[in-house]
Design a protein that fits this description.
alpha+beta, Butyryl-Coa Dehydrogenase, subunit A, domain 1, Butyryl-CoA Dehydrogenase, subunit A, domain 2, Butyryl-CoA Dehydrogenase, subunit A, domain 3, four-stranded antiparallel sheet, 12 helices, Monooxygenase, AcylCo_DH-like_C
Length: about 400
Protein backbone atom coordinates (compact mmCIF):
# COMPACT_ATOMS: atom_id res chain seq x y z
CA UNK A 1 0.00 0.00 0.00
CA UNK A 2 1.13 3.54 -0.69
CA UNK A 3 1.75 6.09 2.01
CA UNK A 4 -1.43 7.91 0.94
CA UNK A 5 -3.50 4.73 1.23
CA UNK A 6 -2.11 4.15 4.72
CA UNK A 7 -3.30 7.62 5.73
CA UNK A 8 0.15 9.12 6.35
CA UNK A 9 -0.11 11.64 3.50
CA UNK A 10 1.70 11.82 0.18
CA UNK A 11 5.36 10.96 0.07
CA UNK A 12 7.76 13.67 -1.13
CA UNK A 13 8.18 13.64 -4.91
CA UNK A 14 6.42 11.79 -7.70
CA UNK A 15 8.96 8.95 -7.56
CA UNK A 16 8.90 8.44 -3.80
CA UNK A 17 6.73 5.34 -3.86
CA UNK A 18 9.01 3.70 -6.43
CA UNK A 19 12.05 4.39 -4.26
CA UNK A 20 10.32 3.27 -1.06
CA UNK A 21 9.04 0.05 -2.60
CA UNK A 22 12.64 -1.02 -3.13
CA UNK A 23 13.21 -1.05 0.63
CA UNK A 24 9.81 -1.83 2.14
CA UNK A 25 10.30 -5.63 2.03
CA UNK A 26 13.52 -5.14 4.00
CA UNK A 27 11.77 -2.81 6.44
CA UNK A 28 9.12 -5.49 6.96
CA UNK A 29 11.81 -8.09 7.62
CA UNK A 30 13.50 -5.76 10.11
CA UNK A 31 10.19 -5.12 11.90
CA UNK A 32 9.35 -8.81 12.21
CA UNK A 33 11.67 -9.55 15.15
CA UNK A 34 12.35 -6.01 16.38
CA UNK A 35 10.75 -6.53 19.81
CA UNK A 36 12.43 -9.89 20.29
CA UNK A 37 15.83 -8.41 19.46
CA UNK A 38 15.34 -5.67 22.00
CA UNK A 39 14.16 -8.06 24.72
CA UNK A 40 17.18 -10.34 24.19
CA UNK A 41 19.72 -7.63 23.33
CA UNK A 42 20.41 -9.18 19.94
CA UNK A 43 22.44 -6.68 17.93
CA UNK A 44 21.05 -6.05 14.42
CA UNK A 45 24.10 -7.05 12.36
CA UNK A 46 21.96 -9.00 9.90
CA UNK A 47 19.41 -6.23 9.49
CA UNK A 48 22.08 -3.62 8.76
CA UNK A 49 23.72 -6.02 6.31
CA UNK A 50 20.45 -6.28 4.38
CA UNK A 51 20.25 -2.51 4.11
CA UNK A 52 23.89 -2.21 3.02
CA UNK A 53 23.45 -4.79 0.27
CA UNK A 54 20.32 -3.02 -0.98
CA UNK A 55 22.22 0.27 -1.36
CA UNK A 56 20.44 2.04 1.50
CA UNK A 57 23.66 3.63 2.69
CA UNK A 58 24.09 5.36 -0.68
CA UNK A 59 20.62 6.93 -0.79
CA UNK A 60 21.87 10.50 -1.07
CA UNK A 61 24.67 9.90 -3.57
CA UNK A 62 23.90 10.98 -7.15
CA UNK A 63 23.05 8.15 -9.50
CA UNK A 64 26.26 8.65 -11.50
CA UNK A 65 28.24 8.16 -8.29
CA UNK A 66 26.61 4.90 -7.30
CA UNK A 67 23.62 6.16 -5.33
CA UNK A 68 19.91 6.76 -5.75
CA UNK A 69 20.01 10.55 -5.76
CA UNK A 70 17.13 11.01 -3.32
CA UNK A 71 16.25 14.47 -2.07
CA UNK A 72 16.50 15.33 1.61
CA UNK A 73 12.70 15.18 2.10
CA UNK A 74 12.69 11.72 0.48
CA UNK A 75 15.65 10.66 2.61
CA UNK A 76 14.06 11.71 5.90
CA UNK A 77 10.74 10.14 4.94
CA UNK A 78 12.53 6.83 4.32
CA UNK A 79 14.07 7.17 7.78
CA UNK A 80 10.57 7.53 9.24
CA UNK A 81 9.58 4.25 7.56
CA UNK A 82 12.73 2.47 8.75
CA UNK A 83 12.22 3.77 12.29
CA UNK A 84 8.66 2.46 12.25
CA UNK A 85 10.29 -0.95 11.78
CA UNK A 86 13.13 -0.55 14.32
CA UNK A 87 14.46 2.78 15.58
CA UNK A 88 17.65 1.09 16.80
CA UNK A 89 18.68 0.35 13.23
CA UNK A 90 18.01 3.93 12.13
CA UNK A 91 20.03 5.36 15.00
CA UNK A 92 22.93 3.00 14.32
CA UNK A 93 23.22 4.52 10.81
CA UNK A 94 22.99 8.18 11.84
CA UNK A 95 26.73 8.83 11.77
CA UNK A 96 27.04 7.21 8.38
CA UNK A 97 24.45 9.42 6.76
CA UNK A 98 25.88 12.54 8.39
CA UNK A 99 29.31 11.66 7.01
CA UNK A 100 27.85 10.96 3.56
CA UNK A 101 26.10 14.34 3.62
CA UNK A 102 29.42 15.99 4.41
CA UNK A 103 31.00 14.27 1.40
CA UNK A 104 28.21 15.58 -0.85
CA UNK A 105 29.04 19.11 0.33
CA UNK A 106 32.81 18.73 0.02
CA UNK A 107 34.70 21.16 -2.23
CA UNK A 108 37.62 18.72 -2.37
CA UNK A 109 37.17 16.67 -5.57
CA UNK A 110 39.69 14.03 -4.52
CA UNK A 111 38.06 13.44 -1.13
CA UNK A 112 34.64 13.31 -2.73
CA UNK A 113 35.77 10.81 -5.38
CA UNK A 114 37.39 8.50 -2.81
CA UNK A 115 34.45 8.47 -0.43
CA UNK A 116 31.61 8.30 -2.95
CA UNK A 117 33.30 5.20 -4.34
CA UNK A 118 33.46 3.63 -0.87
CA UNK A 119 29.89 4.55 0.06
CA UNK A 120 28.64 3.47 -3.36
CA UNK A 121 30.17 0.04 -2.71
CA UNK A 122 28.10 -0.25 0.45
CA UNK A 123 30.73 0.71 3.03
CA UNK A 124 29.34 2.22 6.23
CA UNK A 125 30.83 4.88 8.51
CA UNK A 126 30.39 4.96 12.30
CA UNK A 127 30.94 7.79 14.78
CA UNK A 128 33.39 8.53 17.59
CA UNK A 129 33.09 12.14 18.74
CA UNK A 130 31.78 12.44 22.30
CA UNK A 131 34.20 12.16 25.22
CA UNK A 132 33.63 11.70 28.95
CA UNK A 133 35.88 12.13 31.97
CA UNK A 134 38.16 14.93 33.20
CA UNK A 135 39.85 15.42 29.83
CA UNK A 136 36.59 15.99 27.93
CA UNK A 137 36.42 19.75 27.50
CA UNK A 138 34.23 22.11 25.53
CA UNK A 139 37.17 23.76 23.79
CA UNK A 140 39.11 20.79 22.41
CA UNK A 141 39.24 17.00 22.24
CA UNK A 142 41.48 14.91 24.46
CA UNK A 143 41.67 12.41 21.58
CA UNK A 144 44.55 13.64 19.45
CA UNK A 145 46.75 13.12 16.42
CA UNK A 146 50.51 13.26 17.02
CA UNK A 147 53.68 12.64 15.04
CA UNK A 148 55.05 14.08 11.81
CA UNK A 149 56.84 13.28 8.56
CA UNK A 150 54.20 10.86 7.41
CA UNK A 151 54.17 8.90 10.68
CA UNK A 152 51.07 10.14 12.49
CA UNK A 153 49.06 8.22 15.05
CA UNK A 154 45.68 8.66 16.73
CA UNK A 155 45.24 8.12 20.46
CA UNK A 156 42.26 8.58 22.75
CA UNK A 157 38.96 7.20 23.99
CA UNK A 158 35.39 7.97 22.92
CA UNK A 159 31.94 7.24 24.26
CA UNK A 160 28.55 7.26 22.48
CA UNK A 161 30.30 5.73 19.46
CA UNK A 162 26.96 4.93 17.86
CA UNK A 163 27.04 2.49 14.96
CA UNK A 164 30.79 1.95 14.95
CA UNK A 165 30.45 -1.74 15.81
CA UNK A 166 28.53 -2.25 12.55
CA UNK A 167 30.73 -0.01 10.40
CA UNK A 168 33.63 -0.34 7.97
CA UNK A 169 35.04 3.08 8.92
CA UNK A 170 34.90 5.35 11.97
CA UNK A 171 34.69 9.14 11.80
CA UNK A 172 36.68 10.38 14.82
CA UNK A 173 36.69 13.87 16.32
CA UNK A 174 40.18 14.81 17.50
CA UNK A 175 42.71 17.60 17.96
CA UNK A 176 45.75 17.87 15.71
CA UNK A 177 49.28 18.97 16.63
CA UNK A 178 48.27 22.62 16.21
CA UNK A 179 45.31 22.18 18.56
CA UNK A 180 42.74 22.47 15.77
CA UNK A 181 39.60 20.37 15.75
CA UNK A 182 39.80 17.72 13.05
CA UNK A 183 37.85 14.78 11.71
CA UNK A 184 39.88 11.60 11.28
CA UNK A 185 38.68 8.60 9.25
CA UNK A 186 40.06 5.24 10.42
CA UNK A 187 39.20 1.71 9.42
CA UNK A 188 36.99 -0.01 11.97
CA UNK A 189 39.29 -3.08 11.99
CA UNK A 190 42.59 -1.14 11.96
CA UNK A 191 45.27 -2.12 14.47
CA UNK A 192 44.74 -0.24 17.73
CA UNK A 193 40.94 0.21 17.37
CA UNK A 194 38.94 -1.44 20.15
CA UNK A 195 35.12 -1.19 20.31
CA UNK A 196 33.17 -2.33 23.37
CA UNK A 197 29.38 -2.58 23.45
CA UNK A 198 29.08 -1.19 26.98
CA UNK A 199 26.18 1.22 26.34
CA UNK A 200 24.01 0.90 29.45
CA UNK A 201 21.25 3.38 28.69
CA UNK A 202 17.64 2.24 29.13
CA UNK A 203 16.77 3.14 25.53
CA UNK A 204 18.16 2.56 22.04
CA UNK A 205 19.92 -0.45 23.53
CA UNK A 206 20.95 -2.03 20.22
CA UNK A 207 22.81 0.95 18.72
CA UNK A 208 26.19 -0.17 20.15
CA UNK A 209 26.67 3.35 21.49
CA UNK A 210 29.49 2.33 23.79
CA UNK A 211 33.22 2.95 24.17
CA UNK A 212 35.86 2.97 21.46
CA UNK A 213 39.56 3.41 22.20
CA UNK A 214 42.31 4.29 19.74
CA UNK A 215 45.86 3.24 20.60
CA UNK A 216 48.57 4.39 18.20
CA UNK A 217 46.27 3.97 15.20
CA UNK A 218 48.22 4.91 12.06
CA UNK A 219 46.69 7.79 10.05
CA UNK A 220 47.75 9.86 7.05
CA UNK A 221 47.10 13.44 5.97
CA UNK A 222 44.46 12.12 3.55
CA UNK A 223 42.48 10.76 6.53
CA UNK A 224 42.28 14.14 8.29
CA UNK A 225 39.91 17.05 7.61
CA UNK A 226 39.72 20.34 9.53
CA UNK A 227 36.42 20.26 11.46
CA UNK A 228 35.41 23.79 10.43
CA UNK A 229 35.24 22.66 6.80
CA UNK A 230 32.26 20.36 7.44
CA UNK A 231 28.84 21.10 5.95
CA UNK A 232 27.08 24.12 7.36
CA UNK A 233 23.69 22.57 8.12
CA UNK A 234 25.18 19.57 9.92
CA UNK A 235 23.65 20.45 13.31
CA UNK A 236 20.18 20.73 11.74
CA UNK A 237 20.75 17.52 9.78
CA UNK A 238 21.74 15.45 12.81
CA UNK A 239 18.85 16.83 14.87
CA UNK A 240 16.27 16.26 12.14
CA UNK A 241 17.59 12.71 11.90
CA UNK A 242 16.47 12.23 15.52
CA UNK A 243 13.09 13.76 14.75
CA UNK A 244 12.53 11.43 11.80
CA UNK A 245 13.40 8.53 14.08
CA UNK A 246 10.90 9.80 16.65
CA UNK A 247 8.21 10.16 13.98
CA UNK A 248 8.81 6.52 13.04
CA UNK A 249 8.46 5.50 16.68
CA UNK A 250 5.13 7.35 16.67
CA UNK A 251 3.94 5.15 13.80
CA UNK A 252 5.19 2.03 15.58
CA UNK A 253 3.21 3.02 18.67
CA UNK A 254 0.13 3.47 16.49
CA UNK A 255 0.57 0.03 14.94
CA UNK A 256 1.11 -1.71 18.26
CA UNK A 257 -1.75 -0.10 20.13
CA UNK A 258 -4.23 -0.54 17.26
CA UNK A 259 -3.35 -4.23 16.97
CA UNK A 260 -3.57 -4.76 20.73
CA UNK A 261 -6.97 -3.06 20.96
CA UNK A 262 -8.34 -5.03 18.00
CA UNK A 263 -7.28 -8.32 19.61
CA UNK A 264 -8.24 -7.51 23.20
CA UNK A 265 -11.06 -9.63 24.67
CA UNK A 266 -11.00 -8.60 28.33
CA UNK A 267 -12.93 -5.53 29.40
CA UNK A 268 -14.17 -3.72 32.51
CA UNK A 269 -17.64 -3.71 34.01
CA UNK A 270 -17.70 0.09 33.82
CA UNK A 271 -16.35 0.28 30.25
CA UNK A 272 -18.34 1.95 27.47
CA UNK A 273 -18.53 -1.31 25.46
CA UNK A 274 -18.00 -5.04 25.93
CA UNK A 275 -15.09 -5.02 23.48
CA UNK A 276 -12.26 -2.47 23.48
CA UNK A 277 -12.45 -2.34 19.70
CA UNK A 278 -15.99 -0.92 20.04
CA UNK A 279 -15.35 1.32 23.06
CA UNK A 280 -15.52 4.99 21.94
CA UNK A 281 -13.23 6.13 24.73
CA UNK A 282 -10.57 3.59 23.80
CA UNK A 283 -10.91 4.48 20.13
CA UNK A 284 -10.44 8.12 21.07
CA UNK A 285 -7.09 7.29 22.65
CA UNK A 286 -5.97 5.35 19.57
CA UNK A 287 -7.09 8.19 17.32
CA UNK A 288 -5.15 10.74 19.33
CA UNK A 289 -2.01 8.61 19.08
CA UNK A 290 -2.39 8.22 15.32
CA UNK A 291 -2.98 11.94 14.87
CA UNK A 292 0.21 12.66 16.80
CA UNK A 293 2.19 10.28 14.57
CA UNK A 294 0.73 11.91 11.44
CA UNK A 295 1.60 15.38 12.70
CA UNK A 296 5.15 14.38 13.65
CA UNK A 297 5.78 13.02 10.17
CA UNK A 298 4.36 16.13 8.51
CA UNK A 299 6.55 18.37 10.64
CA UNK A 300 9.65 16.35 9.75
CA UNK A 301 8.93 16.75 6.04
CA UNK A 302 8.42 20.49 6.39
CA UNK A 303 11.77 20.89 8.14
CA UNK A 304 13.40 18.61 5.55
CA UNK A 305 12.40 21.09 2.86
CA UNK A 306 14.38 23.76 4.72
CA UNK A 307 17.46 21.51 4.73
CA UNK A 308 17.00 20.88 1.00
CA UNK A 309 17.09 24.63 0.39
CA UNK A 310 20.30 24.87 2.41
CA UNK A 311 21.82 22.01 0.42
CA UNK A 312 20.85 23.66 -2.87
CA UNK A 313 22.86 26.82 -2.01
CA UNK A 314 26.15 25.02 -1.35
CA UNK A 315 27.83 25.71 -4.72
CA UNK A 316 25.99 28.79 -6.04
CA UNK A 317 28.71 31.19 -4.86
CA UNK A 318 26.23 33.45 -3.08
CA UNK A 319 27.35 33.74 0.57
CA UNK A 320 24.30 35.75 1.65
CA UNK A 321 21.82 33.24 0.23
CA UNK A 322 23.79 30.36 1.72
CA UNK A 323 23.91 32.02 5.14
CA UNK A 324 20.18 32.74 5.16
CA UNK A 325 19.23 29.24 4.00
CA UNK A 326 21.40 27.55 6.61
CA UNK A 327 20.12 29.80 9.42
CA UNK A 328 16.52 29.08 8.49
CA UNK A 329 17.20 25.33 8.31
CA UNK A 330 18.62 25.47 11.83
CA UNK A 331 15.67 27.52 13.06
CA UNK A 332 13.00 25.31 11.50
CA UNK A 333 14.59 22.17 12.91
CA UNK A 334 14.80 23.76 16.37
CA UNK A 335 11.13 24.72 16.17
CA UNK A 336 10.25 21.15 15.22
CA UNK A 337 12.29 19.52 17.97
CA UNK A 338 10.24 20.16 21.07
CA UNK A 339 6.90 19.66 19.31
CA UNK A 340 7.79 16.33 17.70
CA UNK A 341 9.39 14.97 20.85
CA UNK A 342 6.39 16.04 22.94
CA UNK A 343 3.96 14.35 20.55
CA UNK A 344 5.78 11.04 20.57
CA UNK A 345 6.61 10.99 24.27
CA UNK A 346 2.97 11.66 25.11
CA UNK A 347 1.84 8.88 22.77
CA UNK A 348 4.26 6.42 24.34
CA UNK A 349 2.45 6.96 27.66
CA UNK A 350 -1.09 7.32 26.33
CA UNK A 351 -1.00 3.92 24.65
CA UNK A 352 -1.37 2.24 28.05
CA UNK A 353 -4.67 4.09 28.61
CA UNK A 354 -6.13 2.07 25.76
CA UNK A 355 -5.10 -1.27 27.28
CA UNK A 356 -5.10 -3.18 30.54
CA UNK A 357 -2.42 -4.07 33.06
CA UNK A 358 -1.24 -6.95 30.88
CA UNK A 359 0.17 -4.35 28.47
CA UNK A 360 2.91 -3.65 31.01
CA UNK A 361 4.29 -7.18 30.80
CA UNK A 362 7.88 -7.24 29.58
CA UNK A 363 7.31 -9.66 26.67
CA UNK A 364 4.89 -7.17 25.12
CA UNK A 365 7.76 -4.71 24.82
CA UNK A 366 5.48 -1.69 24.76
CA UNK A 367 7.72 0.16 27.19
CA UNK A 368 10.46 0.25 24.53
CA UNK A 369 8.68 3.06 22.73
CA UNK A 370 8.94 5.45 25.68
CA UNK A 371 12.48 4.33 26.50
CA UNK A 372 13.66 4.83 22.94
CA UNK A 373 11.83 8.13 22.46
CA UNK A 374 13.03 9.50 25.79
CA UNK A 375 16.62 8.55 24.99
CA UNK A 376 16.50 10.21 21.57
CA UNK A 377 14.90 13.32 23.05
CA UNK A 378 17.74 13.65 25.55
CA UNK A 379 20.55 13.97 23.00
CA UNK A 380 20.05 17.69 22.52
CA UNK A 381 18.41 19.49 25.47
CA UNK A 382 14.99 20.73 24.46
CA UNK A 383 15.01 23.64 26.90
CA UNK A 384 17.91 25.23 25.04
CA UNK A 385 16.06 24.95 21.73
CA UNK A 386 13.04 26.74 23.17
CA UNK A 387 15.32 29.54 24.38
CA UNK A 388 17.03 29.81 20.98
CA UNK A 389 13.68 30.02 19.19
CA UNK A 390 12.45 32.65 21.64
CA UNK A 391 15.63 34.69 21.20
CA UNK A 392 15.07 34.67 17.44
CA UNK A 393 11.40 35.64 17.78
CA UNK A 394 12.05 38.49 20.23
CA UNK A 395 15.52 39.74 19.29
CA UNK A 396 16.17 38.37 15.80
CA UNK A 397 19.18 36.43 17.07
CA UNK A 398 20.15 33.71 14.57
CA UNK A 399 20.46 30.18 15.96
CA UNK A 400 23.95 28.74 16.54
CA UNK A 401 25.08 26.25 13.90
CA UNK A 402 27.28 24.01 16.00
CA UNK A 403 27.48 23.00 19.64
CA UNK A 404 29.76 20.86 21.75
CA UNK A 405 29.38 19.00 25.02
CA UNK A 406 32.07 18.59 27.66
CA UNK A 407 33.39 20.01 30.90
CA UNK A 408 33.63 23.78 31.18
CA UNK A 409 37.20 25.11 31.62
CA UNK A 410 36.00 26.81 34.83
Amino acid sequence: MTQIELGWGAGPGDDYETIADRFRPIFAEIARDANERELNRTLPFEQIRLLKEAGFGALRLPKDEGGLGVTLPQFFNLLVELSEADSNVTQALRAHFGFAEDILNSHDPVRRRVWTARIGRGEIVGSAWSEVGPGAGLDRFATHVSGSNGHQVLNGAKYYTTGSLYADWIDVGASNVQGEGVSVAVRRHADGVDIVDDWDGFGQVLTASGTTTFTNVAVTDDDIVIDEERFRYSSAFYQLYHLATLAGIGRAITNDVAKAVAERRRSYSHAAATRSSQDPQVLQVVGRIRGAAYSAGAIVLQAANALQRAFDTRFVNDPDSEEKANAIAELETAQAQTVVSDLVLQSSTLLFDALGASATKKPAGLDRHWRNARTLSSHNPRIYKDRIIGDFAVNGTPPPYQWRIGQSPT
